Amino acid sequence: MTRQLFKRADHVLTMSGADLTGADILIDDGIILAVGHDLSPENAEVSDLRGRVVTPGLINTHHHLFQTLTRAVPGGQNALLFGWLQTLYPIWARFGPDEMRLSAELGLAELALSGCTTSSDHLYLFPNGARLDDTIEAAVNVGLRFHPTRGSMSIGQSKGGLPPDTLVEQERAILEDCLRVIDAFHDPGPGSMVRVGVAPCSPFSVSRELMRDAALLARDKGVRLHTHLAENDEDIAYSLETFGCRPGQYAEDLGWTGDDVWHAHCVKLDAREIDMFAASGTGVAHCPCSNCRLGSGVAPVRAMRDAGVPVGLGVDGSASNDQASLIGEARQAMLLQRVIQGADAMSAREALDLATLGGARALGRDDIGAIAPGFRADLAVWDVSGIDSAGSWDPAALVLAGPRTVDRLYVEGREIIRDGQIATLDLPMKLVAARDSVAQLAG
Question: How many alpha carbons fall within 13 Å on the CB side of residue 270?
Answer without folding.
Answer: 8
